[in-house]
């Protein structure tokens, strides 16, 4: 048999893209001669991030369905047909041995077509609440790799394998030495570093919080690396100083995690999985704008184990300063949170998922 060929499909946000990249990297490590093709949605983040990671990507003309009646929605049936046709062409040409879907509307047409042709398909669901695309595909795929218990609510029980979420290899083993990271961010080593993460697209409310509390934060003796998101960089770049570094997007998450002493973060599934491995104190501020409030559930799973602090957006005015000042002042609390969050890590998730894919290849 010739070399293996794999299609990975998913996107829209980093939360669906980076798991696909992590899986591809592990497949490549095991099968250096394998060929890879990513399939995403035209105009979305994957079209830039996947080539940066060294893989080829094709974009489909597809968007999610809006809740309101809009022109975009009227186009939806045409987009679906066009995407199915293109996915069909891709499958015929590339002849994949397996197709892996990591969620987001971009993955719908490709997995629908591939499963129809009898090509083995695997889904990876990052959240404790299943996404629409994965729910639509559940009966057509061979395996569904999940990160949370109780996913039988959404998927056939005999297809579910609990693996955890894939985390990119360079984030699984982090160096202790901070010198390269400090140099990269242009910060001195004498004060603790607070890393602010708004998720792959940035978080409006977290940015507003940091901007209004900047003097308070600096008075706690920290320096700041602030990832504010592409949409917000023009507004917040002006806050940059010797002790505050502002980025739209961090291309070196490894260095950000090495540099950080504590974090304030959205609780997207990927961020949570990574922060468990990083093992440092985190204050989660979940996005209230996602389906079924799943970011609150993601963060709560850690709070219940005393492994992180959570503040809801609605509590920030009242509680943020007190909570953060207490964390900075209490080194025992910082240690306990670090130890407890590390216990929740599933660093072998990617290997486990690739084991499942390999089982389908014969
Ligand atoms: C608003 C929204 O829809 N959020 C969803 C999205 O989150 P979002 O896209 O923010 O994704 P996650 O938190 O899951 O993962 C973010 C990924 O982007 C990377 N990263 C982030 C910022 C940065 O500057 N550089 C960088 O590389 C992180 O290292 C991580 O690998 O997908 C997640 C996984 O399905 C869901 O749980 C979230 O609810």
Automatic annotation (TrEMBL):
It is an enzyme of class 2 (transferase). This is UDP-N-acetylglucosamine--N-acetylmuramyl-(pentapeptide) pyrophosphoryl-undecaprenol N-acetylglucosamine transferase. Belongs to the glycosyltransferase 28 family. MurG subfamily. It is a peripheral membrane protein. It holds the Pfam family Glyco_tran_28_C. Its EC number is 2.4.1.227. Residues 194-351 form the Glycosyl transferase family 28 C-terminal domain. It catalyses: di-trans,octa-cis-undecaprenyl diphospho-N-acetyl-alpha-D-muramoyl-L-alanyl-D-glutamyl-meso-2,6-diaminopimeloyl-D-alanyl-D-alanine + UDP-N-acetyl-alpha-D-glucosamine = di-trans,octa-cis-undecaprenyl diphospho-[N-acetyl-alpha-D-glucosaminyl-(1->4)]-N-acetyl-alpha-D-muramoyl-L-alanyl-D-glutamyl-meso-2,6-diaminopimeloyl-D-alanyl-D-alanine + UDP + H(+). UDP-N-acetyl-alpha-D-glucosamine binds at residues 13-15, 127, 168, 200, 295. Pathway: Cell wall biogenesis; peptidoglycan biosynthesis. InterPro entries: GlcNAc_MurG, Glyco_trans_28_C, GlycoTrans_28_N. GO terms for molecular function: UDP-N-acetyl-D-glucosamine:N-acetylmuramoyl-L-alanyl-D-glutamyl-meso-2,6-diaminopimelyl-D-alanyl-D-alanine-diphosphoundecaprenol 4-beta-N-acetylglucosaminlytransferase activity; undecaprenyldiphospho-muramoylpentapeptide beta-N-acetylglucosaminyltransferase activity. GO terms for cellular component: plasma membrane. Cell wall formation. Catalyzes the transfer of a GlcNAc subunit on undecaprenyl-pyrophosphoryl-MurNAc-pentapeptide (lipid intermediate I) to form undecaprenyl-pyrophosphoryl-MurNAc-(pentapeptide)GlcNAc (lipid intermediate II). GO terms for biological process: carbohydrate metabolic process; cell division; cell wall organization; peptidoglycan biosynthetic process; regulation of cell shape. Residues 6-144 form the Glycosyltransferase family 28 N-terminal domain. It is found in: Cell membrane. Keywords: Cell cycle, Cell division, Cell membrane, Cell shape, Cell wall biogenesis/degradation, Glycosyltransferase, Membrane, Peptidoglycan synthesis, Transferase.
């Amino acid at each position: 048999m010739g070399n293996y060929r794999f299609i990975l499909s998913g996107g829209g946000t980093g939360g669906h893209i980076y798991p696909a990249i992590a899986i591809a990297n592990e497949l490549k490590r095991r099968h250096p001669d394998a060929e890879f093709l990513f399939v995403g949605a035209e105009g979305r983040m994957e079209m830039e991030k996947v080539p940066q990671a060294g893989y080829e990507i094709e974009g489909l003309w597809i968007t999610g369905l809006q809740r309101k009646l809009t022109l975009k929605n009227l186009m939806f049936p045409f987009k679906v047909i066009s995407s199915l046709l293109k996915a069909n062409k891709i499958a015929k040409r590339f002849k994949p041995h397996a197709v892996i879907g990591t969620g987001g509307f971009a993955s719908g047409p490709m997995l629908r077509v591939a499963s129809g042709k009898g090509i083995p398909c695997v889904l990876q669901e990052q959240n404790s609440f299943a996404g629409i695309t994965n729910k639509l595909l559940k009966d057509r795929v061979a395996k569904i790799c999940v990160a949370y218990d109780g996913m039988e609510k959404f998927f056939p029980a005999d297809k579910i394998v609990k693996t955890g979420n894939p985390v990119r290899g360079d984030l699984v083993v982090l160096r202790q030495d901070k010198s390269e990271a400090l140099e990269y961010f242009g910060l001195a080593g004498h004060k603790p570093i607070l890393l602010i993460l708004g998720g792959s697209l940035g978080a409006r409310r977290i940015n507003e919080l940091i901007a209004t509390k900047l003097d308070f934060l600096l008075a706690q003796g920290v320096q700041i690396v602030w990832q504010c998101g592409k949409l917000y960089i023009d507004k917040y770049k002006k806050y940059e100083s010797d002790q505050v570094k502002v980025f739209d997007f961090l291309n070196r998450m490894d260095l950000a995690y090495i540099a950080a002493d504590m974090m304030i973060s959205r609780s997207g599934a990927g961020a949570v999985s990574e922060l468990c491995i990083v093992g440092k104190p985190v204050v989660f501020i979940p996005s209230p704008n996602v389906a079924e409030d799943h970011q609150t559930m993601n963060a709560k799973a850690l709070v219940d184990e005393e492994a992180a602090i959570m503040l809801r957006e609605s509590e920030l005015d009242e509680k943020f300063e007190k909570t953060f000042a207490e964390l900075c002042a209490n080194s025992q609390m910082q240690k306990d949170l670090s130890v407890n969050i590390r216990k929740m890590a599933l660093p072998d998730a990617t290997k486990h998922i690739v084991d499942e894919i390999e089982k389908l290849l014969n």
